[in-house]
Amino acid sequence: METMTCGCGEDQIPGVLARGMAALALTGLAVMAVTACALGGVLWVIVRWRDRGRTESEQSFFDGFGRWEEEEESER
Length: 76
Fold this sequence. Notes:
64% helix
């Protein structure tokens, strides 16, 4: 049985759609990666800016976090 085509390239449509979807997926992944890097950079700058303004006498609640393990090991 012979398929009827108009000769205008309609037999190439599925391949074009598949390549377009692959390009769209890769573009989406690239945009998400760049966005994650940008947000990470902004967060890093904010944390460094906040810590730079803090004097040594000021202490945060989380300053001693994890030190209890070191203290237990030194007591043994």
